[in-house]
Amino acid sequence: MSPRTELFYFGVITLILFLAVIVIPYLRRKRDLLLPSNFFLGGATFFISVSAIDSSYTPQVLGFISRFTRQDYHDYFWGVAYFFFGFGFAYIAGRRLSKAIANRAFVRWPPISRQILWFMLALSVA
């Protein structure tokens, strides 16, 4: 299999995976569609997946591209996989940590009264 064919399959597989990560939780009503992580993955879909598919079909205009070896393509594939696996793991761990901190901090808030609302308004304006 040529590196261009592998690049095409890589683009199709990442396109399906990225869109599945965005669409499946939305269809299961677990997450919203308009989230920062979904916008990031949507941009990554176009930047990585669609450009990989496009690069596998378009003629190579630049001369140095033909010097890429099969190992260069595989290094790129694994680099993308490691980055997005690490990003996903950090995002999930970060959300859990921020939820735990918020649950401890916001439970101790005083009851809402007019004085507290004016104080919070003054803090946010200052």
Averaging pLDDT over every residue, what do you get?
A: 84
Can you tell me the residue ranges where pLDDT is under 50 for at least 5 consecutive residues?
none
Which shape, going by the Cα principal axes? Answer: elongated
Q: So what's the oligomer here?
A: single chain
- Note the gap between the termini: 63 Å
Tell me roughly what share of residues is in helical segments: over 70%
Major sheet: size, sense and barrel closure?
none
Count of β-strands: 0
Radius of gyration: 22 Å
Estimate the strand proportion: under 5%
Instruction: Please identify the structural class as seen in this structure.
Output: mainly alpha
Number of helical regions:
4
Task: Kindly list the characteristics that best describe this protein.
mainly alpha, 4 helices, 76% helix, elongated
Characterise the protein shown here.
The mean pLDDT is 84. The longest helix has 37 residues, at 70-106. With 126 residues, the chain is mainly α. The protein is elongated. α1 (3-27) packs antiparallel against α2. It contains 4 helices and no strands. It starts with a helix and ends with a helix.
